[in-house]
Description:
Elements: H1 17-44, H2 50-127, E1 136-145, E2 154-157, E3 170-172, E4 177-184, E5 189-193, E6 200-205, E7 211-216, E8 222-225, E9 238-241, E10 258-266, E11 275-280, E12 289-295
Antiparallel strand pairs: 1-2, 1-12, 2-5, 3-4, 3-12, 4-5, 6-7, 6-9, 7-8, 8-11, 9-10, 10-11
Amino acid sequence: MLASSVQRSQSDPYPSKARSALVRRAVLVVLVVAALAMLTISFRSPASGALHDAQGVASSAVEPFQIAAGRIARPFRDAYDYADGLTSAKSENAKLQAEVRQYKAQALANAALAAKAAGLESLLRYEQGKTYPQGYRPVNTSVISFPAGPFAQQIAIAAGTSSGIRLNTPVVTGDGLVGRVTKVFSRTSVVTLLTDSESYVAARDLQTGVRGLVRRGPGRTLILDDVSKQLRVNEGDQLVTDGTRDPRYPDLYPYGIPIGTVSSVGISDTASFLQVQVQSYANLGSLDSVAALVARRRT
């Protein structure tokens, strides 16, 4: 009997999962019932009584701790509010700066379009005016490159042989003569300006009828050359292209294209001709839109 072993059942040291869940649910039910009971007693109890006195005592006891906690928490709350406000202000500032940049870019784009629109309107007025040369049609185009240096006096335009442009085609703005085409390709052309050293234009003074050659003068200015000192040219006189004088020798430019005005007239004892300075109508240093004058009939 003593040697025989008796098997004992081992007790489970941990409650089962079902029992643990049951305990948690029971505790939750008790807490809910207690809360509901306290709320019911609070609402149904008279305005004065032991319960309300106990609540008052508890509130009085807790109030100093609430005040202290509020004072302790205030710097942290203020710091948080400051940091939050600073972050919001930075975000709003970044947003406003982005909007300002966008508005500036839009304003610049509008100004650029307005400048081009003004040039096109000027071309349209010239093409519809009385001084537009007969027998020519305009090819309105934009300038796509400007002089590459101080000694280069050429621009490129976005039109070529596909638009009817040929060598020596005159090029104008709505204000006056620009130059002529000296190189031409399928869709682009190179225009040599009046201020180039190889440019010469037969011109006429509309007020006096005096003829001469407009060409480059000192410092890339324009002068009216070959005008005898016996002839009369006045400051402010208007100069236009003289056109063809002899059909056997047709001029490159048709008659009547505005060139510029006489800005000054000088006389030198050692020179055979008048010293006539010319101010171009066209702003040769700032060209956006031009028109190439294509002859309707090639001669």
